[in-house]
Design a protein that fits this description.
The protein is built from 4 helices and 6 strands, in the order E-H-E-H-E-H-E-H-E-E. The relative contact order is 0.23. Helix 2 links the parallel strand 2 and strand 3. The protein is α/β, with parallel strands linked by helices. The longest helix is centred in the first third of the chain and has 16 residues. The protein is globular. The two termini are about 30 Å apart. Helix 1 crosses helix 2.
Length: about 160
């Protein structure tokens, strides 16, 4: 059994209009929400074996805040530029390339693609992945390359304002 935890980046800052979309940083709420959501995963006794992120600044920073809570270092994050403004195929490709030894991976990316991807995985539908939301699924596979065609089981959905 392998598990995929999909995380939309935390709330980003629009303070500086001269900063490109790719380089937007997290705002204060985003910096608070990311560790809080990482800790919700830890409370569920979830062990993440690989952190995979869009290379955009707000996704990288969200992943860095998560991995810190899990006792890892930001240098361990696998950056996948194709996850920036990605559609479902880019997510499937990133998952197919996940480390073979990993049983649970976390993907950090952006809307609208992340919501579209989450809605493609199981019969559970969400209207919109809020910032720092988590959508998790499991698949009875041994190899990440089999994920796309495997039957996925909805695991849970959580977001900062849910509690």
């Amino acid at each position: 059994m392998k598990s995929v935890i999909i995380v939309r980046h935390a709330k980003s800052s629009w303070e500086h209009t001269d900063v490109s979309d790719f380089d937007r940083p997290l705002n204060d709420r985003g910096k608070e929400d990311a560790p809080k959501m990482a800790n919700r995963l830890l409370e569920r006794n979830i062990k993440i074996d690989a952190f995979i992120s869009s290379s955009a600044k707000r996704a990288r920073k969200t992943a860095a805040l998560f991995i810190k809570e899990f006792g890892g270092h930001k240098d361990e994050i696998i950056l996948v530029p194709e996850l920036y403004l990605a559609g479902p195929d880019a997510f499937y490709n990133a998952i197919a390339q996940a480390p073979a030894k990993a049983n649970t991976i976390a993907l950090f990316a952006h809307n609208p693609g992340i919501t579209e991807f989450a809605n493609e995985l199981t019969g559970v539908r969400i209207h919109d992945m809020p910032t720092c939301a988590i959508f998790a699924v499991k698949a009875d596979i041994d190899d990440w390359a089999a994920f796309k065609d495997a039957e996925k089981q909805y695991w849970f959905f959580d977001y900062p304002k849910a509690k």
